[in-house]
């Protein structure tokens, strides 16, 4: 599978799809730190601003079979101004559809926050789906939560999968047979499972149930003892109940794991998650974002751009699951075509 990644960020799709043997034709990203991360690990061509990609640039890098992108979510997020498609960032979703029209991949994968479903009464999301349909793509969409894919955070995101000419193949990617059999777990059962699964990250092997939250090496500023209580490990809120610090400050289950108010508790102390822990929560290898930056060595890379880039990224295990499902659907379609050809002969 030959793919292109728009709003590429730090390259979650490359980590997710390398095991599948897929090839990246080009990327599109304008944020300098994520560009540097992808350049260090992958070295794929970056076409820059997606609004300036033209026909000549697409032809230069050859045809693609899949276009993937998570266009900026601020205009759709319930935490933002929810400007929808009237916001310049929201309009990048329509630019993404234009790139689909120009490159005509077989597959399309688009990701955003759940707020996209309700902004502007659902009309913005309907416009995105309508654009896909006008381009000849059958589509399906589903909200997936990263906590069920092997990482210790709740991170719900909407994924749209489009397949040129066939909605059934798009639906087969997102809706495996087990997911449509009914009998979903209760909210309490899901909550208990999320807590029990804390720390079982895709990239980390450990006997410690909170292994993804025990990264101790962080410029010598953190305690050396292992964590015993996980207080916050999610993107959409903490799993444990709110706590009150010795100073009387209450830490609620609102916000984002990359903000100061989300933390972990060790004994009676409260501290912020480290960048390495955030990498594990997203399914990246340890120190993936620890790169030389602005003439400084990797070990002196500042935390700020690492937190920001990780917070904007997709979860690697979720993207791997979607890629593997696309691969399986393609394989089944190929087998059916071969079988039909043999019968006709």
Give the topology, please:
Layout: E1 2-6, H1 12-17, E2 23-28, H2 32-41, H3 55-61, E3 66-69, H4 88-103, E4 107-112, H5 123-134, E5 137-145, E6 156-164, H6 167-174, H7 187-196, E7 243-244, E8 250-251, E9 263-266, E10 269-272, H8 275-281, H9 303-311, H10 316-344
Parallel strand pairs: 1-2, 1-3, 3-4
Antiparallel strand pairs: 4-6, 5-6, 7-8, 9-10
Helix pairs in contact: 6-10
What does this structure look like?
A hairpin with a 2-residue loop joins β9 and β10. α6 packs across α10. This protein is of the alpha/beta class and 345 residues long. The strands form three sheets. It has a six-stranded mixed beta sheet, with helices on both faces. A two-stranded antiparallel sheet has the order 7-8. It has a two-stranded antiparallel ribbon with strand order 9-10.
Strand pairing plus helix content: what structural class?
Answer: alpha/beta
Strand content: 5-15%
Order of helices and strands: EHEHHEHEHEEHHEEEEHHH
Separation of termini? Answer: 29 Å
The rounded Rg comes to: 21 Å
Helical residues, percent: 25-40%
How many strands in all? 10
Give a short overview.
The chain is α/β, with parallel strands linked by helices. The chain has helices spanning 12-17, 32-41, 55-61, 88-103, 123-134, 167-174, 187-196, 275-281, 303-311, 316-344; strands spanning 2-6, 23-28, 66-69, 107-112, 137-145, 156-164, 243-244, 250-251, 263-266, 269-272. The chain has ten helices and ten strands.
